[in-house]
Amino acid sequence: MSFISRGFHGRRPSPGTKLPPGQYETTGFPVLSAGPTPRIRQENWKLSVTTEAGKRHEWDWAGLMALPAESPTVDLHCVTKWSKFGTEWHGVSLDTLLADVDTTARHALVTSYGGYTTNIPLTDLVDGKAWIVYRYEGSDLAPAHGGPARLLVPHLYLWKSAKWVRDIELRLHDTPGFWESAGYHNYGDPWREQRYQGD
Ligand SMILES: Nc1nc2c(c(=O)[nH]1)N[C@H]1C(S)=C(S)[C@@H](COP(=O)(O)O)O[C@H]1N2
Ligand SMILES: [Mo]
Q: What angle do CA 152, 29, 146 make, to 5 degrees?
């Protein structure tokens, strides 16, 4: 009964904590990338949303800049156990991006420049829970952290926040992404400590 032994070992978060179980706070901002950092210039950058019916919606950099933006301040939780509190971002909510997208799909498969993929239920991308961000702490997002633009889904472990996001494919059926195929949890809720398959 792991939830009992966690309590005995003092890993159960105290009420009101911002730290999910098994995490520690860091003030640094580690870089975690499964491959080399792609260098995409803003003038070559594109983001597309593809629906289950095959309809493709696409934005270039000017198109993204023309959309109303928000400045969320959120806590980040990485499955390698660091959490970072109060990070400040600027970008476009997925609610705004998907406003004119006609879909009945319930799953999204996100693909990045460089080939990284991750899957997320569509309900976790809407209702103010996810953004395409292009500024971090007041500056253009650095390439190492996903610039020019990355997905930010802070209520899930950070591997779901695809850096260098290129395409969001809306699908009727769920398809595991890169880490999900390698044994990581399909959903990845840090508060339920869903690190690996079976957690
Ligand atoms: N395209 C892409 N996105 C990615 C990754 C990656 O390797 N490639 N790593 C993920 C993982 S495991 C984490 S923890 C975060 C790390 O983001 P950071 O490097 O900005 O801290 O990015 C996520 N998004
Ligand atoms: Mo990660």
A: 40
